[in-house]
Design a protein that fits this description.
Distance between the termini: 45 Å
Structural class: alpha+beta
Number of strands: 5
CATH superfamily of the largest domain: [2Fe-2S]-binding domain
């Protein structure tokens, strides 16, 4: 557990936070201005969320808060509260992960964790989403390599598997 050091000048204004990440509690000491993306990567060693644009446009930093996708570059760490955070490190053997591998839903891989989390949330919340709904959700993430066809095919394949399990 991180502790605020005894140097009151160096640590003035810092706050200790407890974050619920991937089913475990994590302690960090952060400035009030610290964004979740940097806390995850630099303080907690969870490097799956990537810093891309850092203004909420690309989606490479997507995490789930209580099951809903959010851009970690747009969230202050101290405002997360008791929400359950899921990072790519917290997904284990999901249908969307299998489909991304089987349908080449990635090229360079930089955007992959954001797309996986966003698509996972979509399939959990709207397993019967139509093409327009799926496109709307996927539009919140960008792939610089333009691997959209593989991503779309992976989401469609994973959706079929999720729907089969619901029957």
């Amino acid at each position: 557990m991180s502790q605020i050091k005894s140097d009151p000048i160096k640590y003035s204004g810092y706050q200790q936070v407890v974050l619920n990440i991937n089913g475990s509690k994590h302690h960090a000491v952060v400035k009030p201005s610290a964004i979740l993306l940097h806390t995850l990567r630099e303080e907690l060693g969870l490097s799956g969320a990537k810093g891309g644009c850092e203004n909420g446009d690309c989606g490479a930093c997507t995490v789930l808060l209580d099951g809903l996708p959010h851009k970690a570059c747009m969230l202050l760490t101290v405002e997360i509260g008791n929400k359950e955070i899921t990072t790519i490190e917290g997904l284990n053997d999901t249908e969307i992960q299998k489909a991304f591998v089987n349908f080449s839903g990635f090229q360079c891989g930089y955007c992959t964790s954001g797309f996986l989390l966003n698509a996972h949330a979509l399939l959990q919340l709207k397993p019967h989403a139509n093409d327009a709904e799926k496109q709307n959700w996927l539009d919140s993430n960008l792939c610089r390599c333009t691997g959209y066809e593989g991503i779309r095919d992976a989401v469609n394949a994973a959706q079929e598997k999720v729907q089969e399990k619901l029957k």
